[in-house]
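Quick one - first record:
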Amino acid sequence: MKAEDLRNKTPDQLRDELVSLKKEAFNLRFQKATNQLDNTARIRKVRRDAARVSTILNEKARVAAAN
């Protein structure tokens, strides 16, 4: 997921994306705990994508507050 693509989305779309990423991270943690997780790198990618979405949401909020 690229930041450029995320910046073109609306805040509502970003919030939906963040919710889905957090759900996926939750499911991946459970898979790891039960030794069912095949791709351990996926956890890192999902966490970073969630952080990226949060950052862009905060940027958009800051710009909206400044105007």
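second record:
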Amino acid sequence: MTSDLGLFGPGSVSWRLHSEPILLLGGFRALYLQALHPLVMAGLAQNSDYREDAWGRLNRTTEYVATVIWGTTEQAEAAGRRIRRVHERLRGIDPVSGDFFRIDDPHLLRWVHVTEVESFLTTATRAGVVLAPEEVDRYYAEQREAARLVGIDPLTVPASAAEVEEYYQGIRSELRLTRDSAAAALFMARPPLPYGLGFTPVRLAIGGVAALSVSLLPAWARRLYGLPGLPTTDLSAGAWARALRGALAMLPVRYRNGPYREAALARAASAASTTH
């Protein structure tokens, strides 16, 4: 068995944070945030089959993140190469100017990256995961490796909570709700469900997850969606997120861990045994 512990390893904040199943909720939050950038949303709408294959896309995205966090170095690098090959041949059309733009424009990729990692971290901490300020900053710094994999210069990526806040302040003038982003937001709240599940309580659960994801957005993002940015929303969202984390903690270990994490933990145990 290879002892390659991948890009992060057992001492990293990334391994600690991504052991939390609540990060799936963070992924939904990131999608709602990402949709507020008009070019990112236009590129997705023009190049993606997310409406026809919503669950397949979710599975592929989840597997990619798991590979980057828990996979070996080669698995993570290979996953990054696949993403870069796909992105480099895709183009979008700016719905306002009519100009073409590259899907792998670093400015757009950086928005997707920052919103993803900030959503993971914010959702986890709002759900009760305790991280010291220096651990928060270390997570952002570690995740520069994930940014590198998709073709972003790591030195241009925020590497601390203060830098993330500064980044958001600088990009907010570009953000707005468009027809594409509104349609995507509604779609995420009511996606087509397989196996007839749309006629079961699963439909209500999906709607609840969507509502909680939106409630966890920054107040300024909620206002862009035409929703209240009140502090009471933040308080109730945090309470619901903590309750959901508690419920997920009762799932069997095999469902909480997943195959990539199980393999990573086995490699870490093997590496530790050879050093003693």
